[in-house]
Q: What sequence folds into this?
């Protein structure tokens, strides 16, 4: 009877030990995994690797965002460049006032070959108007000159006639075939007057 009790007691002790160890394993398992089978606790090295990967992903996203912003800025800049109107300015070499020049002067009419009746500055002279009313010099003749003379330049011709530059000409200007081209009411009248040689031109005003 005594030996049987001892056997029962040993069996109970062994059972208790097994139960306690199984309980510890269950507790350890629950510490690592939650009910929904997701990892609850992980090693610190694994956490560090995950953080590094997340940082790399964030940097790539940031760089992609920056590139997108730069593309948008460049696109807007290009739009501004394309839509910006370009102002065409006539290049003019200034001729000092009171400078005296000598050369040939030709004549032309608003009905000449290739002429439209409009001057280079936009004034219409097809009706035979060969004068211009200047606010400073009064009623003056109209002449054509090259781009060395601004529109509105006042020229005194042979110390008598006053003229204003309102037109252009391919063969007109300093170093060209004619120094100035005087406007007449018609091409026929210009041909009758012909070319004036050794003509004196005094620049009184350079442009308006």
A:
């Amino acid at each position: 009877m005594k030996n049987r009790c001892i056997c029962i007691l040993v069996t109970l002790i062994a059972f208790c030990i097994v139960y306690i160890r199984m309980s510890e394993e269950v507790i350890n398992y629950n510490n690592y995994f939650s009910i929904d089978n997701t990892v609850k606790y992980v090693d610190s090295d694994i956490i560090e690797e995950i953080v590094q990967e997340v940082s790399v992903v964030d940097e790539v996203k940031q760089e992609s965002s920056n590139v997108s912003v730069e593309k948008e800025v460049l696109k807007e800049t290009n739009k501004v460049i394309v839509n910006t109107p370009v102002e065409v300015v006539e290049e003019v070499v200034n001729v000092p006032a009171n400078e005296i020049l000598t050369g040939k002067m030709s004549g032309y009419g608003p009905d000449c070959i290739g002429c439209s009746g409009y001057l280079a500055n936009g004034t219409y002279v097809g009706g035979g108007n060969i004068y211009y009313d200047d606010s400073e010099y009064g009623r003056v003749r109209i002449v054509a000159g090259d781009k060395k003379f601004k529109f509105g330049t006042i020229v005194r011709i042979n110390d008598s006639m006053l003229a204003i530059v309102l037109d252009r000409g391919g063969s007109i200007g300093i170093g060209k075939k004619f120094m100035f081209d005087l406007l007449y009411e018609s091409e026929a009248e210009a041909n009758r007057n012909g070319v004036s040689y050794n003509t004196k031109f005094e620049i009184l005003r350079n442009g308006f």
Notes: Residues 43-86 form one domain. The chain has a mean pLDDT of 76.
